[in-house]
Amino acid sequence: MKILLVLYYPFHPHHLAGGAQTLLLLQMQALIKLGFNFRILCPYCDAKGIVDNTHIEIFPVLSEVTITEPSPQDQASNLKVIAQFLEGIDLVWTVDRKFPLVIEQPIILTFTTQCVYPDECSALFDGNWDMLLLLSNFSRRSIEDWLPHIHSLRKAPCIEVVPAPFDPKLSIHSDSVSFNKLLGQNNTKLRYILFPHRPEPGKGHEEALEVLKELIKYDPMYHLLVPEPPRSRKFDVDQEYRFISFLKSKISELDLNENVTFHEWIPRNHLYSYYSSGECCLFLSMFPETFGLSLIDSLLCKTFVISHGVGALSETVPPGYGHVVIPERDPVKIAQAIVNGSSLKEIELGYNFVRVQYNPIEIGKRLATLFYSVTKSDWLLLGNQRLTNNENKS
What does pLDDT average to over the chain? Predict the structure, then answer.
């Protein structure tokens, strides 16, 4: 089967722009193992972004549409390019954006966030999709409440939940020397607290600083690691750097300059060293998270996680499985939980839960079954009817 995957961001396999992009890559890799082939359309990416895989063709030919610089010319160019690449395609897979053309092939729409941005709402309510693929039952419950109001749907909607698999490469130990260069740190006595999230309001950065302030009362060697914005897309990097500047001023106010390191976005080939170096991973987001990739990545490296349990987080990994859930925003309580740690038994429970629940082979099979089902003859007849209806409207 050949899939046209339409992305709104550049495709960088080793330096991805946050969890949403990585989630999709992991699902793709599970399907590639089963012989699926992908033609990827995306905005420009440099040579380092081209993945070496016989099952993937990457065409960085789309214009990257931004909020601040909408261009009718760019969007018209994208429509023309997409139409040219549909030949020989069995189905179209689009991520967090509506597919802009009426076509014969079935369309699968994936949401990696909780439909909180205008582009995502437009994709959902436009109704130009045959299957909605979600990452958690939390997402499904929310969207099912909205479906009665989507009058443009052509038939009873097909909604499926398939989580992202864990990354098998994450268990491969990376070079700790080159990892330390990324951090710019050589002090082996530091007690790292991990905060692997994009720099944007609502992810809990300010709360993490308040937690750190409490932690150094126990031990001044506690040290918070904060990533800078990834460089793989230009869409919102400027505002993220402004947020970093705000955080740096906050750090100075709290007298924490010696206890915080801002580092480059960690490529996935260094993530084992990153997660295994931490005493704890903080997931203090107040967003309605749809999955929580950092949660399973951290437990796969046997580092426990503290979160507020918002969105799907308590569904992704239940509390007590190396996952400490503290609903309230209480820096003192969170600091105490870090000092107390998590038992080896609980961390092992979380590790085994992730290995079983998010097994790449099983998830690949589930995805393959769904993708083949959507290309059956009744779906294709529906696609032909869609084209006919559109021609009649013309």
Answer: 84
